[in-house]
Amino acid sequence: MIIKDENGRIDILSLGFDELCEQITALGEKKFRAAQVYEWLHIKQVDSFDKMTNLSAQFRVRLAEVFCLKSLFIVKKLESNTDNTLKYLYRLPDGNHVEAVVMDYNHGTTICISTQVGCKMGCNFCASTIAGFRRDLLPSEMLLEIYTAQRDCGRKISGAVLMGIGEPLDNYDNVMCFLELLSNDKGMNMSLRHVSLSTCGLVPKIKELAALKLGLTLSISLHATNNETRSGIMPVNKKYSIEELLDACKYYFAQTGRRISFEYALIDGVNDSPENADELYKLLGGFVCHINIIPVNKIKERNYSSSRKNAQRFRKMLEERGLNATVRRTLGADINAACGQLRREYEI
Ligand code: SAH
Q1: What is the mean pLDDT of residues 57-83?
Q2: Is the CB of 170 under 6 A from ligand 1?
Q3: Whose CA is nearest to atom 16 of ligand 1?
Q4: Most buried of 64, 204, 223, 278, CB within 10 angstroms?
Q5: CATH code of the domain made up of 73-347
């Protein structure tokens, strides 16, 4: 994707391989130079043109005139004492901040990244929407959340979840470009089977994504079993009802064959009754999917609470009704990695 900064320089990390080739050959350079530059950017992941040492000094100067190579500054890094979870607070080139969380699982290291600065969706239990929306993240900035963490912590990151700050389907074009760069075999080469995208339920975009048949896991933030409750906690439900959302999910499954994951943040007295379990069975019984129950993370602006005990109780209710559900283990609890805006949890 061609994106220019305020000085007219092209954001080089957001360019696809073919776009980079076009730009580099337009400078009078051979195509193999573009392959070298792409490798420096996406495999060696250097943060300046000066470090591209197999290119002539003159060419590096030219690159810096035509392109900008963004970087993220690590403002804060928190390390869990109980597991290997790391939480990064990054400063973006324009002074805004986003967070990412790196988690070790037995099948590899996964990163949870942000897709926007803030969020417009207004879910009333979520910390990242409270301060409102600032701007979309660029493809380069989403990649840099990964490259910067990988360089800093020395772990090979093999999976990504788009579950940090922001609504990924509200930043659709940039997220699609990012996924293409992330999975490109000349770069990071991450299999999209190791990527999950979480959405509050933007129905038209779910259908658009389904048609691409990308193979990533779609996570749906369901959190309620009837429209009244869902609209009360998630304004997006007033636009796209549960029925429309589930139709889109069925379409996604039909197109991709990928099992959908439903997120269910359990809130005491709001969505945790036996009637809710019955309603959930009516909605999801017979549909190939998985339900993740997460005791809601407290945020200071709301009085919501829940516990692992309640979550286990609700899981049992679902199990009795034949629904496939797990309560997620929390990683990085001591560093507040599971803080709502960057909640990150994992099935045992
Ligand atoms: N906008 C996307 C992705 C970002 S939020 C979405 O809505 O899915 C990632 C997940 O954290 C979502 O499932 C969201 O509903 C959930 N979440 C937000 N605040 C939470 C909280 N306080 N407790 C538990 N989960 C929360």
Answers
A1: 95
A2: no
A3: 340
A4: 223
A5: 3.20.20.70
